[in-house]
Write a structure and sequence with these properties.
Alpha-Beta Plaits, four-stranded antiparallel β-sheet, about 35% strand
Length: about 100
């Protein structure tokens, strides 16, 4: 299993707009082989930002890599950044993880 995360520092007061942007968009993830699930996470509030993370789970790294090269990825990210730069402080920070242990 592979987990792909993007961390976003969202400007204070922009939380509702950020959440609406993410929850209303068509991700195209369900079309991609190896996709398991997606989460949008809201983290702690700091003085200058609120931390968010998008978190996708994939069957393996190859499935994630296939997503990044797919037409579904291009469609999902086609309008990324259009008019939303004021929501973020800096660029999203990507982190990828190979799952070593899962406890259910």
């Amino acid at each position: 299993m592979y987990i792909a995360m993007n961390r976003f520092k969202v400007a204070p007061g922009s939380e509702a707009e950020f959440e609406e942007l993410w929850t209303s968009r068509d991700t195209h993830l369900k079309e991609v082989p190896g996709f398991v699930e997606f989460h949008l996470l809201k983290g702690p509030k700091k003085e200058d930002h609120v931390l968010y993370s998008s978190h996708t789970i994939w069957s393996d790294y190859e499935a994630f890599e296939g997503w990044t090269k797919s037409e579904a990825f291009r469609a999902a990210h086609r309008n990324a950044g259009n008019g939303t730069r004021s929501l973020y402080l800096g660029h999203p920070e990507f982190e990828g993880f190979e799952v070593i242990q899962t406890v259910k």
